[in-house]
Amino acid sequence: MDNRLKDIVSHFDIDGEIVDIKPLGAGLINDSYEVDTDRRGRAYVLQRINHNVFRDVELLQNNIEKVTAHIRKKLIERNEADIDRKVLQFTRCGGKTYYFDDKDYWRVMVFISDSYTHESVNPEYSYCAGKAFGDFQSMLADIDEVLGETIPDFHNMEFRLKQLRDAIDADKVGRLDAAREMVDRYLAFADEMCLAERLHREGKLPKRICHCDTKVNNMLFDKDGNVLCVIDLDTVMPSFVFSDFGDFLRTAANTGMEDDPDLDNVDFDMDIFRAFAKGYLESASSFLTETERGNLHYAAALFPYMTGVRFLADYLDGDNYFKTQYDDHNLVRAKAQFKLFESVRRRYPEMKAFVEDFK
Ligand code: GN1
Ligand code: MG
């Protein structure tokens, strides 16, 4: 066991003696570890918060504390059973929920027992996930607290395109030639994909508290496929509802992998779409506006597109943001996301019809 990690955990209020610390999960931003103790069923998750990405850890943890407290209150009001498995719980270090060791920021949360994450899901699980995200957004719809933007302009498509254009102009590491074809294919859709920002400026599209990282692996399921809770709350902030709808489908409805080198594997699975949309519309109908509802097909295309633009910009910038495993990893990701984007766009009429009929 790594003694540095053990020492870090010992600053937090935890029950029991630490017996093991091992790497956990596959996030592209933070590093996570499972911390086992000698108390039966008592384990924790230690995370190093990526300080390059999250510049203001105080604000970040503040948001998370407000959100988890609000959700806990709602679950209590609803008389839910097993609440400790349905909302994250952070342990304290002094008065705070994080610890700074002069180099890195760390936090520790209670490990939710008998929970599972999945990299892919069947339609039945997707339906549960749709309900869970609609419910997550509706529980947070009446939060009084003001949440800060943990990452300013995080899901702002115009801003992400500007980053890409800046990276193209700078061509910092000389990769533009290798990326040229992809760059052109992405930029051809730039105007079309900035619809959300235009609607917002026209006063037609509100911002609400969203999760903003609803990858399928950011959700804990129980053994029967029911969603226990959503995890990875770093990016919870005001955004368009499209964020949560689109990012889940980007990962769950992709028949291939996010970084699939074989583009033939990548396609958009309409069974997953229908199941997820049904669950989402059931729990979100109470607050969705016509504009939000009427553009859910666009949300499904927006996220492969936006994430691809981010991968491509990071590729041109020299891989400073996303963790990569090999040299062209971010370019391979951008290609796979573009393939997915095209598959989604082809299904626009079918998706629109499905949402229309669901009334
Ligand atoms: C990052 O940390 P992780 O892997 O859940 C990223 C998301 C991207 C995703 C792509 C803070 O999420 O926005 O969609 O990678 N998170 C941040 O896999 O940038
Ligand atoms: Mg994650």
Characterize this entry briefly.
By secondary structure, this protein is of the alpha+beta class.
Question: What does the model show?
Answer:
The strands form three sheets. This protein has a five-stranded antiparallel β-sheet with strand order 1-2-3-5-4, covered by helices on one side. Strands 6-9 form a two-stranded antiparallel sheet. α5 packs antiparallel against α11 (296-317). The chain folds into two domains: 3-110, Phosphorylase Kinase, domain 1 (2-Layer Sandwich); 123-357, Aminoglycoside phosphotransferase (APH), C-terminal lobe (Aminoglycoside 3'-phosphotransferase, Chain: A, domain 2). Helices cover 46% and strands 12% of the residues. The protein is α+β, with helices and mostly antiparallel strands and 359 residues long. The chain is globular. 41% of the residues are buried. The chain has 13 helices and nine strands. 2-acetamido-2-deoxy-1-O-phosphono-alpha-D-glucopyranose binds next to loops.
